[in-house]
């Protein structure tokens, strides 16, 4: 670290950063002081010292409170990152003190979490009971971003072009196939297979707009030159099945996820005859060889004896 960088680090203290974030969140020095149990004058002095340390104005002060300057917006982003990292560090170190020997941070999309990870992580936990896995569900683009930014050690998601995956290493994890799900009484349910263009005549129950399934449907609809009648968006596959069962539309689900949820209604699955219906879920990391030992153990359990691809 350069001497100038060391000097900057010494001028910034964590308490001032915490108070700065509180003021930004509440829009008022007085309300921040009440929440943090500190005098408003002390908060104001901390903020002035912080502005002096960074040599720029961070807040616009007015009679109704405060607003951020462009420099303040930038500092707020970095301050939250620093404070979040410290919270995670405290949590992980306390776990080591309690006897936990390892910790792996993983983000995965809903398809991986519903279809495969319960069994895979369950067997891993039985073999490595002292390793804690911190698993969070996110959309595939957000999984890739988290791994790229270091918020997660590992990710499992659908990997496509143009989503930042080129900067990461990946390994095959599992594959699935999308099927059309409809009520058993629906006109489409009697077919053995169907093209997606024929689905576009019906209302569709879908997932988040940014999910890999929704993105694939929109791309296919655009290629067909047809509108996508996605009337309802939900956040889980089981909710989607319940909506479909109650006649609110049809939807696309991974085949194994549908098999696991057949008790949620009188539903039928129809094979989707599209190349993009065949999907691959991949395990991603910035550098598999540079992962901590605990994360490498999990990688070998999930994707054994497969060489990473750039």
Q: What would your notes on this structure say?
A:
- This protein is α/β, with parallel strands linked by helices.
- The chain has 3 domains: 3-83, Arc Repressor Mutant, subunit A (Orthogonal Bundle), CATH 1.10.10.10; 95-174 and 280-302, D-Maltodextrin-Binding Protein, domain 2, CATH 3.40.190; 177-279, D-Maltodextrin-Binding Protein, domain 2 (3-Layer(aba) Sandwich).
- It is 46% helix and 22% strand.
- Strands 3, 4, 5, 6, 7, 10, 11 and 12 form an 8-stranded mixed sheet that branches.
- Strand 8 (204-206), helix 10 and strand 9 form a beta-alpha-beta unit.
- Helix 2 (14-26) crosses helix 3 (29-36).
- The two termini are 31 Å apart.
- The relative contact order is 0.13.
- Residues 305-310 have low confidence and may be disordered.
Summarize the structure.
This protein is of the alpha/beta class. Helix content is 46%, strand content 22%. It has 3 domains: 3-83, Winged helix-like DNA-binding domain superfamily/Winged helix DNA-binding domain (Arc Repressor Mutant, subunit A); 95-174 and 280-302, Periplasmic binding protein-like II (D-Maltodextrin-Binding Protein, domain 2, 3-Layer(aba) Sandwich), CATH 3.40.190; 177-279, Periplasmic binding protein-like II (D-Maltodextrin-Binding Protein, domain 2), CATH 3.40.190.10.
Topology of this protein?
Blueprint (H helix, E strand, L loop, with lengths): L2 H9 L2 H13 L2 H8 L3 H15 L4 E4 L2 E4 L1 H28 L4 E7 L1 H6 L1 H11 L3 E7 L2 H10 L4 E5 L10 E15 L9 E2 L1 H4 L4 E3 L5 H13 L5 E4 L3 H9 L5 E4 H6 L6 E6 L5 E8 L7 H10 L8
Parallel strand pairs: 3-4, 3-5, 7-11, 8-9
Antiparallel strand pairs: 1-2, 5-12, 6-10, 6-11, 6-12
